[in-house]
Amino acid sequence: MLKFEDYKYERPDLENEKQTFRGLLTAFSEATTEEDQNKAIEKINAFRNRLSTLFNLVYVRASINTNDDFYQKERDFWDEKSPELQELYTEFYKELVKTPFRDQLEKKWGSQLFSLADYQIKAFSPEVISLLQKENKLTSEYSKLVASAEVEFKGKTYTLAQLGPFTQDKDRNVRKQAIQKSSGFFEENADKFDDIYDQLVKVRHEIATKLGYKNFVELGYVRMLRIDYNAEMVNVFRKQVRDYIVPLVSKLYEKQAKRIGVDSLKFYDENFEFKSGNPTPKGSPEWIIDNGKKMYEELSDETNEFFHFMLDRNLMDLEAKKGKEAGGYCTFIEDYESPFIFANFNGTSDDVDVLTHEAGHAFQAYSSRNIGIPEYVFPTHESAEIHSMSMEFFTWPWMELFFKEDTDKYKYSHLASGLSFLPYGVAVDEFQHLVYENPDWSPEERKEAWQKLEETYLPHRDYEDIPYWQSGAVWQRQGHIYEVPFYYIDYTLAQICAFQFWKRSREDREKAWNDYLNLCKLGGSKPFLGLVEAANLRSPFEEGTVESVVDEIEKWLDSVDDQAL
After folding, report:
1. Does the keyword Protease apply (predicted)?
2. Ramachandran quadrant class, 385 (left: phi over 0; alpha: psi -120 to 50; beta: rest)
3. How far is residue 433 from each of residues 99, 205, 220, 311, 436, measured CA to CA in Å?
């Protein structure tokens, strides 16, 4: 059995690859029967999977160790070359949507493939290749800059991820100093962070206008493959969050201030939830994985098979370490049919959230790995986040394995933080709309816009003694804003869907789990609202959905004596 470290990478000769692909594309275009076209599609898919496998191996290995010269050079190579591959694949999409066998192919592969092809065509033109290359380089520059942080604290050197536990310390001064140190890294590199983002906004605006769009907002929605909803619907959703959730979250923060014994909650208090200390996993990373194994063995036959697949092949890199990129993600290595989970364990409850959240993504990809079309292995982003966030709730019955006497604390914190995330999530989204509608804004104007959004969505927030965050720069910590524009409202839409699974799993666990399993198997074969319907969930855009979901959660939170936790 091959393990991840044995998965083979060799840099491809792209000129040869392009010739090969054009031959495959000619075979597709000149096919005179539906059967021949299907065979040609299968060969094209195998070609794309092979190159995507190589790209993903580089991406994972370069993010695990940003000091690895070989994989950093290979990452630079792919940053440069992937837009050229996008050009090839767009040629395929153009042929696909005009095939005379479209009706028959839609019956076999589903209409979603053709909708995705249409959007990919709209998002690309050969004349923007050099701009896409520049965009790739800038996003890599951002992630390397964040990964380069080596912060001196309490006589030791830490990465930003490793500072995390100190922001939850019982000692208020320690929390404050840890947040100040983290903010200090961004302040010291303020010019770089401002410059990278300024260049990204301008290059994205230029790409959008060259492709015939008014601004990058329109192109951003096309790139995110938002096939069955639009910016107006998102705006209605943000309004629901503003009206129903912001007041509730403000109340939750008031309860938190009382619970931890402070007169007024500061930004450096937000991560500290209980006077007796936050819930933390009661063992090492290896111990967490062992308990994760037990949890997934017991959850279902399918999760048991999946988790052993991941363990047997070393498909997880979980601990925070120097030179490792920040954050967590799941990707899929096609030729090995392997999901891969990347994380930064740091001894907080986030470690267990990662094990459930990223494993939700990985379990979905594993469930749909044989679906036959690269486009369908993962769904679009907002749908993919339903799998991850819902898995966090389906695993609640096993949380005692990890948190022992802190289990009630964890559940309260998990549900409350899911709610309090929503206003921040929609603020990030609205911020990006404003930025890309005003591409000529200066860095200072962007920060002012963020400050105004905080007044609307995060009215409780107080950055006392953290001048850089106070200046409206806290969004610079959010990698999505730099690396995947408009990928953030997705979490909030998915959170509303996951809350519905939480509610339903308490009423009829078996039915809720079967709907979830079915959703995972569908992969990306339907657009967002089609998948929501298939899972028997209510659309987050529907008037009243947010209110009904939140009411249930508020009741549950009110039923807990949080002051006693």
Report:
1. yes
2. alpha
3. 36, 12, 10, 41, 6
Q: How far is CA 8 from CA 74, 334, 336, in A?
A: 14, 13, 10
Contact between 112 and 525 under an 8 Å Cβ cutoff? The reply is: yes
Residue keyed to tokens 């965009």: 135
Q: Does residue 252 sit within a domain?
A: yes
DSSP structural state of residue 146: H
| CB-based contacts of 364, cutoff 8 Å, min separation 6 | 378, 379, 384, 387, 388, 519, 520, 523
Structural domain total, the chain: 3
Pairing state between β 316-319 and 338-345: parallel
pLDDT, tens only, 155-188: 999 999 899 999 999 999 999 999 999 999 999 9
Condensed to tens digits (0 to 9), the pLDDT of residues 310-335 reads 999 999 999 999 999 998 999 999 99
Q: Are residues 367 and 514 in the same domain?
A: yes
Tell whether the torsion through CA atoms of 322, 325, 328 and 329 is positive or negative: negative
Quick one: tokens of 346? 């740091």
User: Are 86 and 25 found together in one domain?
Assistant: yes
Residue type, 414: H
SS3 at position 224: coil
Which stretch of DSSP H or E encloses residue 317? strand 316-319
Dump pLDDT digits (tens) for 255-295: 999 999 999 999 999 999 999 999 999 999 999 999 999 99
Name, in order, each residue with C-beta under 8 angstroms of 397's C-beta and a sequence gap of 6 or more: none
DSSP states of 245-302 as a string? Answer: IHHHHHHHHHHHHHHHT-SS--GGGTT---TT-----SS-HHHHHHHHHHHHHHH-HH
| Same domain flag for 440 and 347 | no
Is 172 within the bounds of a domain? yes
Could you list the residue range(s) of the whole structural domain that residue 173 is in?
150-274+417-483
Residue 200, CA atoms < 13 Å, CB-side half-sphere: 24
352 assigned to some structural domain: yes
Containing 454, the helix (H) or strand (E) segment is helix 443-457
Residues 347 and 311 in one domain: yes
- Predicted confidence at residue 479, as pLDDT, reads 96
Residue positions counted in the chain: 565
One domain, residues 516 and 429:
no
Residue with tokens 């657009």: 527
Report yes or no: 432 and 481 within 8 Å, Cβ to Cβ: yes
Does residue 551 lie in a domain region?
A: no
Question: How confident is the prediction for the chain on average, in pLDDT?
Answer: 97
Residues 103 and 10 in one domain: yes
Tell me: do 90 and 178 sit in the same domain.
no
